UniProtKB/TrEMBL annotation:
<comment type="function">
    <text>Transports the metallophore pseudopaline, which is involved in the acquisition of nickel and zinc, and thus enables bacterial growth inside the host, where metal access is limited. Is probably involved in the import of pseudopaline-metal complexes.</text>
</comment>
<dbReference type="Pfam" id="PF07660">
    <property type="entry name" value="STN"/>
</dbReference>
<keyword id="KW-0406">Ion transport</keyword>
<dbReference type="InterPro" id="IPR012910">
    <property type="entry name" value="Plug_dom"/>
</dbReference>
<keyword id="KW-0732">Signal</keyword>
<keyword id="KW-0472">Membrane</keyword>
<dbReference type="Pfam" id="PF00593">
    <property type="entry name" value="TonB_dep_Rec_b-barrel"/>
</dbReference>
<dbReference type="GO" id="GO:0015891">
    <property type="term" value="P:siderophore transport"/>
</dbReference>
<dbReference type="InterPro" id="IPR011662">
    <property type="entry name" value="Secretin/TonB_short_N"/>
</dbReference>
<dbReference type="InterPro" id="IPR036942">
    <property type="entry name" value="Beta-barrel_TonB_sf"/>
</dbReference>
<dbReference type="Pfam" id="PF07715">
    <property type="entry name" value="Plug"/>
</dbReference>
<keyword id="KW-0862">Zinc</keyword>
<keyword id="KW-0533">Nickel</keyword>
<dbReference type="GO" id="GO:0015675">
    <property type="term" value="P:nickel cation transport"/>
</dbReference>
<dbReference type="InterPro" id="IPR010105">
    <property type="entry name" value="TonB_sidphr_rcpt"/>
</dbReference>
<keyword id="KW-0408">Iron</keyword>
<keyword id="KW-0998">Cell outer membrane</keyword>
Length: 793
């Protein structure tokens, strides 16, 4: 039994120990805050500068969006104490701050009330790379690592098309949005609005392989089309090269990650009307705000209706798009965002034309760019998609963070189209009819745990997770030959047609994939090391084949090293792998192995201190092995394709209001092994050289303040028109342009109103975008002009 005196002594001793421990902790934290660090923060909006400071100095900065909105900070660089850097960023403002260890809270005189955490913005949390960028230069991305990582610290090629670039250039498809991105041939199938067809580093890429917020969004083998709407995106991230460690089954060329618009806690109200040639009409809206005073609940509602004639006659495309989103942020450590999407599009694919009359001159001349080879009495296409999911993140403490992305999507598709088959003589061609109808669904889930910790002087960002995809679709397809011939130089439509059935199929297909992955990003002094591995189990079941079920297992690895020089240079080297299951059997009945990819990359990234710019150069050697070929109707996997090259990209804000982006690609792609006699050839529609340059300037003052002028040029080198390399398609160069004006600069009553005029292929260059055979050529996009009126309030 203890005495009261002993109890009082024990209490006093415990209080002394606690006070000493608290003093030591405070001293240590103040010493850490006072320890100089090397910083490189360009002149930019204050919110972006605070994000850079938080990441470079290891601070967590808490502030209200209203406190920093509309404020631009100076640039700082060099070695200094974090608190000194913070003071320099806040110079000239009325913002004050409080420091508690590595936590910094900002307060502004616009609102003298105490800050409530639910209305704050937390800098440096795991997925800040989904936030909108101010300008063209993105400094962070998640596609390369699945974590919020500076691009300069990522040992792989990553490009980002920001929201401002999308708004300036006004692309109508994801492919069009990537026209100024290195390594991407974005319009190889011409001006299609119902689908995205492109290549990355010489390998086919399309809608079925794209990611939405880091997860699959479409059934890769589903026969319908689904072209995502750029107006609903915050940014587009492109990871070039093999990437199965993060995303499982994928093509070796790379990954495209589409980042959805998210709810905002600041008032966002935008209405837009647009019109152009080819009877183009569009109405769109984008609304967002907090739903309560504290900002615990917020929303985003984006919608669009578009109708336009295609370049080819007798095709009208319509699109309805609606995307609601709502976020719940009960604290600075937890966020749950529900994302919905509905899209319906009708119209048709502009089917290809013969090389004779496009690439080569026919005795009767060249075919017009509006030549239509189908028949509107039979052609139709409807694609409908509905999806609902959520993005969840919870930070337990300074070390552990849990994230989970879940999405369920439902698809419906119905189409009938008529296309050319082959020459009949006398200038006419045979045709065929392809009819498809189906529906499908896809469930995806990616659960991740991230740990940020130190072992000695080494800082770790450890990511482990499991993702799961499960899809099913039913498809009916019928192919019919058409008995009557067709002359594209003298087309006749609406005549009775005789259909001769060739093949019919009806099947159900189920696909599933489960992957477990582990990745460590380790920073030691100026070194950044990345090491990752993944194991996948894939299943593909189709009820019209024997055997019906095919199962594959595969391990994929990646590794990379970056060295960060103090002057902003960051050389790196990396290795990565990919795999893609292929369903079917060889001539002896054995199961086909997955196609695999291996890539070696050497590069240099440069982020000059004190500037808002990023420059990159990458040298790569990428090989696709086990490529599937069909010889005499039987599958063989002796094929191999090698892609090597150099890519350069630069994005910079030269001075305030003047943005410049440029790229160059040299890509040597060769079939190195083949049983089809194509060894040594280049795959069709793959250019060896590509280059682009875009710049725009917003007048900052004077009588023309608010006027924006922009222009760009895109060069795509010559390509082969078939796998035999029997003919070439000429190179082309097209020019794009932009002019816009903020009417509020002219008249205060028009504040928030902006008018713009965009032109693609300004000088109406006539060119062939690409061919895949002598019957598979497609004209490039003719001059298109869009006038836009946007009102923001």
């Amino acid at each position: 039994m203890t005495t009261p005196e002993l109890d009082r002594s024990t209490i006093r001793l415990r209080r002394c120990i606690a006070a000493a421990a608290l003093g030591i902790a405070l001293s240590a934290s103040m010493q850490a805050l006072a320890e100089p660090v090397r910083l490189s923060i360009p002149e930019q909006p204050l919110s972006s500068a605070l994000s850079d400071l938080g990441n470079q100095a290891g601070l967590q900065i808490i502030y209200s969006q209203d406190t920093v909105s509309g404020i631009r900070s100076r640039g700082i660089s060099g070695e200094m104490e974090p608190e000194q850097a913070l003071r320099r960023l806040l110079e000239g403002t009325s913002i004050t701050y409080q420091i508690d260890g590595s936590h910094v809270t900002l307060q502004g005189t616009r609102d003298d009330s105490a800050m409530a955490l639910p209305t704050t913005s937390i800098v440096s949390q795991a997925y800040s790379s989904v936030a909108p960028d101010d300008g063209y230069v993105a400094k962070r991305a998640s596609a390369g690592t699945k974590t919020d990582t500076p691009i300069v610290e990522t040992p792989y090629s990553v490009s980002v098309v920001t929201r401002q670039q999308i708004e300036a250039q006004q692309p109508k498809t994801v492919a069009q949005a990537l026209r100024y991105t290195p390594g991407v041939n974005a319009e190889l199938a011409g001006p299609q609005f119902v689908t995205d067809q492109l290549t990355i580093r010489g390998f086919q890429q399309g809608t079925g392989r794209m990611l939405r917020d880091g997860t699959r969004t479409f059934l890769p083998e589903f026969l319908g089309w689904d072209a995502p709407e750029p107006y609903g995106l915050e940014r587009i991230e492109v990871l070039r090269g093999a990437s199965s460690v993060l995303y499982g089954a994928s093509d070796p060329g790379g990954q495209i990650n589409l980042v959805s618009k998210r709810p905002t806690t600041e008032a966002l109200h935008e209405v837009q009307l647009q019109a152009g040639n080819l009877d183009y009409r569009q109405g769109a809206f984008d609304l967002g705000d907090k739903l309560d005073e504290e900002g615990v609940w917020s929303y985003r509602l984006t919608g669009l209706f578009r109708e336009a004639d295609a370049q080819a006659d007798h095709i009208t495309n319509r699109r309805q798009y609606f995307a609601p989103a709502i976020s719940y942020r009960p604290s600075d450590d937890t966020e749950l965002t529900f994302l919905g999407e509905y899209q319906k599009q009708t119209g048709n694919f502009a089917n290809p034309l013969p090389a004779l009359g496009t690439v080569f001159r026919d005795p009767r001349g060249r075919l017009d760019r509006d030549t239509y080879v189908g028949d509107s009495a039979f052609d139709h296409m409807t694609n409908e998609k509905t999806s609902l999911g959520y993005v969840f993140e919870h930070r337990f403490d300074e070390i552990w963070t849990l994230r989970q992305n879940v999405r369920y999507s439902d698809y419906r598709q119905s189409s009938s189209e008529i296309a050319l088959f082959g020459p009949l003589g006398n200038g006419s061609y045979s045709r065929y009819n392809d009819q498809r109808e189906g529906d499908g669904r896809l469930f995806t889930m990616d659960t991740q745990v991230q740990a940020n910790f130190f072992t000695g002087d080494a800082e770790h960002t450890l990511l482990t997770g499991v993702d799961y995809n499960n899809g099913k679709f039913d498809q009916d397809q019928a192919l019919n030959f058409i008995l009557e011939g067709f002359d594209p130089f003298n087309p006749v439509y609406g005549q009775p047609l005789t259909f001769i059935p060739f093949s019919r199929s009806s099947y159900e297909q189920k696909l599933s994939q489960t992957g477990v992955y582990l990745q460590d990003q380790l920073k030691l002094d100026n070194w950044v090391f990345l090491l990752g591995g993944r194991y996948d189990w894939a299943s593909n079941q189709k009820d019209d084949r024997s055997p019906q079920t095919q199962k594959d297992e595969k391990f994929s690895g990646r590794a990379g090293i970056v060295y960060l020089f103090d002057n902003g240079l960051a050389p790196y080297v990396s290795y990565s792998e990919s795999f893609l299951p292929v369903m079917g059997t060889t001539v002896d009945g054995s199961q086909l192995d997955p196609e695999t990819g291996k890539q070696y990359e050497l590069g240099l990234k440069y982020e000059p201190p004190g500037t808002n710019s990023l420059y990159t150069i990458a040298l790569f050697d990428l090989t696709k092995q086990n490529a599937t070929e069909f010889v005499s109707g039987f599958a063989r996997q002796e094929g191999e394709v090698r892609s090597r090259g150099v890519e350069l990209e630069g994005k910079a804000e030269i001075v305030q209001g003047f943005n410049l982006i440029g790229s160059y690609t040299w890509n040597d792609v060769e079939v190195t092994e083949s049983d089809l006699g194509t060894e040594g050839n280049t795959p069709f529609r793959v250019p060896e050289h590509m280059a682009s340059l875009w710049g725009d300037y917003i007048v900052q003052g004077g009588a023309l303040a608010g006027l924006r002028i922009g222009a760009g040029a895109r060069y795509v080198g010559s390509t082969y028109g078939d796998s035999a390399n029997s003919f070439k398609v000429d190179s082309y160069t097209v020019v794009d342009a932009l002019v816009s004006y903020e009417l509020g600069k002219l008249d205060a009553s028009l504040d928030g109103v902006e008018v713009a005029l965009n032109a693609s292929n300004l000088f109406d260059e006539e060119y062939v975008a690409g061919c895949f055979s002598n019957m598979g050529c497609q004209w490039g996009q003719q001059r298109t002009v869009y006038g836009t009126v946007t009102y923001n309030w």
